[in-house]
Every structure is written in structure tokens, then in C-alpha cells.
Fold:
Amino acid sequence: MSETHATLVELAQKLYAGDAPGVLALCKRALGEGLAAREVLDAGLLAGMEVVGRDFKAGELFLPEIIVAARAMHAGIEELRPLLAEAASGAAAPRTAVLGTVKGDLHDIGKKLVGIMLEGAGFRVLDLGHDVAPERFVEAVRVERPQLVGLSALLSTTMPMMRTTIAELERAGLAAGTTILVGGAPVTAAWAKEIGAHGFAPDAVSAVERARELLAARGA
Ligand code: B1M
Structure:
């Protein structure tokens, strides 16, 4: 096992333990060892979070542990943020994206990553946060007139809220003037189509690619 790899293994363990200062220190160390921010994210932070999710499902971890792991994840992501955004750069005209995790859903790490990548790709990102009611999306779209609206959901129970949000945007006459992208672990392309979204992306990097494709197709 190489030394750099060992750093990422340790990083995943610190993430699992919810040790935010440790995660921060190891992100810095990994970058100092010359690892790319994406590698630190994928093989360190996300690898650790995957085990958290698995053990939570198996009943070996409980909500308090997940909450501290999520805080540690945020600390790591903030450290990587400028480098991740830089890696995703290379866009043309500035565009606006309104992002949020739908009502009833508190998961915001993936959505935050999508925002960072979009920022890196030149979007002005208005992140409404998590547990965002359809009316707040409607208001933000009315005021900001974004080219892109991104909806995230991590729970099968909150996926229907994506449909409600899109329906509200349609009712307000705002859906046709923007491009609606959906994502989150349980979300699929078939679901996106069923609820009237314009597109789906499985991860933060593809979200940028998909957004670019969809906007280009609309000439936006
Ligand atoms: Co919860 N949780 N959680 N949780 N949590 C999951 C999602 C779960 C899969 C765990 C499990 O059972 N294995 C499960 C959902 C099962 C299901 O419905 N399918 C679950 C559950 C059940 C719950 C509660 C109901 C637990 C309870 O209370 N009994 C509860 C619900 C609370 C609520 O939301 N109302 C709950 C609570 C929480 C915390 C608040 C403690 C915490 C979130 C903290 C936070 O986000 N600030 C939490 C966490 C951390 C997780 C896990 C462990 C990790 C999620 C995560 O951040 N992953 C998760 C298990 C897992 O996923 N391994 C789990 C890392 C993140 C980078 O990935 O979010 O998938 P992800 O984002 C990806 C892609 O999905 C995609 O790109 C991202 C980056 O590549 N993506 C998009 C996301 N949004 C996108 C939008 C796009 C495009 C792509 O376009 C707009």
C-alpha cells in the first residue's frame, strides 16, 4: 500500500469516526502529498461515507454518529471546494442555477457538491438549502429567472416532493422557461421523466455535464 493511499484510508476512517479536525488535517495532508481533490473526495470522504451508510443500514451506527460524520464531511468538502470548483471549470457565459433539497429531506451533502461543481463551471449558484418547500423554489425562480433548477432528494419518501415541486413550477408558469435537473441516490432517469423533469444526473460531475448538454439543446 503506498503512502498516499494510506492517507486516504485514514481519511475515510476519520470521516467514519466523525472527527472533523482529523478530516480537515488529512485532506490538507493528502493535497500536500500531491493527490487530486477529486481523488481525495472519492477515495477518502465518499468512501468513508459509504461505510457510514452501510453500517447505519445494518443497525451498527445510529443517527448521532451519522450527524457527526456529516459534519466532518462538510469540513472536508470546504477544504476541497476551491480545487473541486477549479477542476470543473471551463464554461462560457455566466448562468444562474437555483438548487435545493426538497421539502421533508435534510440531506444536503450531495446537493452541496453539485453546487460546488456548477460554480466551478461558471454558474452563479443560489443554494436554497435543504427541506425546501415548493413555494420557495417558485419564489426563487420567479425572482432569479435561473437557466437551471436543481432538485435533490435522498429519501424514497421525499422523491414525490420533486413531482410536487415541478407541478408547482408548472402551475406558476415558470417550468417552461427553465431547465429542471433532478438527482440524489434513489433518483433515476425513469423517475425524472415520469415527473416531468428535463434531466437527471447520477453524480455531481455528471450534473455539470448534463446541465451543459440540456442548456445547449435549448440554446440557453
Ligand atoms: Co440519512 N439516509 N436519513 N441522514 N443518510 C440515507 C440517505 C440512507 C440511504 C441510509 C441507509 O439506510 N443506508 C437512508 C435512505 C433510504 C431511502 O429512503 N432510500 C437514510 C435514512 C433512512 C435517513 C432517516 C430517515 C433516518 C431516520 O431518521 N430514521 C433520516 C431522514 C431525515 C430527513 O431527511 N428527513 C436521515 C437523516 C440523515 C442525517 C440528517 C443524519 C444525515 C444527513 C446530514 C446532511 O446531509 N447534512 C444522513 C446521512 C449523512 C446519510 C448517508 C449516510 C449519507 C448521505 C450522503 O451525504 N452521501 C446516507 C447513506 C448513503 O448514501 N451512503 C443516508 C454522500 C453524498 C455525496 O452522496 O447525497 O448520494 P449523495 O449525493 C450524490 C448523488 O446522489 C448526486 O450527486 C452527489 C455527489 O456525487 N446528487 C445529485 C445528489 N443530489 C443531486 C442533484 C442533482 C444531481 C445529482 O441534480 C440537481
Residues 96-217 form a domain with the Rossmann fold fold (CATH 3.40.50.280).
